[in-house]
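One record is given unchanged without comment:
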Amino acid sequence: MSKKNKENTINIIPLGGLGEVGRNMTVFEYEDQYLIVDCGILFPNNDMIGVDYIIPDMQFLNDKSDKVAGVILTHGHEDHIGGVPYLFDILENVPVFATPLTAEMAEVKLAKGGRISKANMIVKQAGDCFDAGPFRIEFFHMAHSIPDSVGVAIETPAGLIVMSGDYKFDQTPIDHWPSDFAKLAELGKRGVLALLSDSTNAERPGNTPSEMEINRNFEEVFSTAKGRIIISSFASLISRLQQVSTIARHHKRKICIVGTSMVDNVNLARKLGYIDLPEECVIPLEQALSLPDKEVLILCTGSQGEESSILGRLSRGKYNAFSVKQGDTIVLSSSPIPGNEENISGVINRLYRLGANVIINSVLSVHVSGHACQEEMKLLMNLVRPKYLIPVHGELRHLVAQAKVGKSVGIPEENIFVVEDGQTLTLHDGKMKLGEKVPSGFVFVDGKGVGEVTADVMRQRENLSESGIVIVTLLLDKKSGGLIKEPQFVFSGVTNEEDLVQAEEQIKRQVIEHCAKNMHTRTEEQLQKDIMQIVRKNFFSTIDRAPWTFVNIYSI
C-alpha cells in the first residue's frame, strides 16, 4: 500500500468485548501508531475451575511500546480497567488518559500489581480535547452506573470515529449529570464515519429505567425492615451506594462498609467529591455490631455469588467478623453477569436457610441497568448519524440485536459490521471492509499465573472434577524388577468407600500379577502405561468413569 493510501486507512482491532460481556479492549492503528481503548477482565464460567478471571490476549502489542500513542480508559468498571496491570507487563512509559475517578481506580490497581511506575497517568475531564500521536481525542460525558464515565470521539486523518462507552440516557441520574446530548448532536453534524456502540441491552425494548425510579422500593425496604439491612452490590456501583446511604441517613441508620474493594472505592469517591457521605454517618464494623439492629446498614460485596466475597462467606457461615441471623434483610442490588446465575442462586438459598429475608430484583425492583435499551440506542444513532455501525460490548446475540436496531433507523445493512474478537476492520477512503485476524483467545489468570493455564489444563481440571484421581505407588527391586511390597493406592473423588474397598482388592491383585511378568524386559514407562490401563479399565467397567491415574515407580 502506498504512503498516500495508508494516510487514508485506519484499522480497528477488537481484542475483547465483542462476543462476550466483559474483557473490553479495542486498538486503533494508523500509520503504525496505536491507540488502545480500555483493557478489562471477564469473569470465568463455573466450569473454568480455579480461574480467577480472564484477560484479553495482548500478544499483538508485544514490542510496540514505542508505537503506542496512548491508552484511554472510559470508566472504572472491572470489565474496562481490570486488565490494565497486565497491559503494563507488555507496555512501558505509555500515557494513560482517564477522568479523575477512573484514573485513581486504575492507579490503585497498578500500585497493587507493582506496575505504577510503568504508566504515565494523565487526568482529563469530560469535555477535554487532546492529542495522542496522530489521534485527536475528545471525551464527552455519558451517564452510567459509575461517575466519570465518558464516550470517546477519535478524529483521525481517515475520519471521525465515535465510541459510546457504557451508557444509558437517564434523565434523572443520581449525580444529576445526564449524558451530553449537545456533544453527540455536534459530532453528528461534523460527520461520523463509524460508531462503536454498547450492545449489552440490545434485546430489551423501550428505555432503561432511571436510577431514581427504584428510590421508592429502597424506601419500602428501609421502612419495613425491623433488623439489620445488608445490601450487596458491585463495589464500583458508586451511584447505588450514594442512593442507599442517603436513604439510610433519612431512616437514622449508621452505615458500615465491609470489603476491601468497596471501602477503597467509597474512599476514592468521597475524596473526589463523587459521593456525599458525612464522616459521622460511617462506622466501623465493631461499632455496628454493638448497635441495635434497626440502626444499622451494612454495605458489602458479593452480589454475583463469588465464593470469596463477603456475602459468599456469610452465606456459608465462614465470615469470622459476624454472621447472618434471623431478622436480617439482605438485598442483592445487581443483575447477574451471564454465567453467575448458579452461584447467585446458591447464595440466596443458603441465606434463606440462615433465617434472612432476601430481596432480589425479581421480588422487588432494587436494581436498574447501567446500559441503554433499544429506544436509547435509536436516539444515539439518530444524534450521531454514523455512516457505519459496529456493535460492541456484548455476546454475539446482543451484537446481532443491535444490528437490527441500526437497520430500523435507516443504517444500510451493508454498513453494519457484526464481528467478534480478533477480526480487524479496515477503514480506507471512507469505506469499511474486513481485514486480517489477530490472536484474541482467552488468557486465564490463575493466582499469580497469567496465561499458564491452557485449554488442555482446563479440560484436565474438568475431568478431575468429574472422574476423580487415583495415585498408584510401586516400590521395585532395582536388580530383579519385582515388587518389594504391595502396591499403595490413594483414591480421591472416585466413588463411595464401599465400592472402593472392593475395587482396590481387584486392582491390587491384577497389578501384582502384571508386575510379576516380564520383569527383566519391560521399561518403567511401559509399566506405568500398563498400570494406568488396569486401573482405568476396572473403574470404567464398574462406575462407567475412568479416573485420572498417576503411577509413581521407585526402584531401590
About this structure: Residues 8 and 157 are 6 Å apart (CA to CA). The first helix runs from residue 3 to 6. The chain has 16 helices and 25 strands.
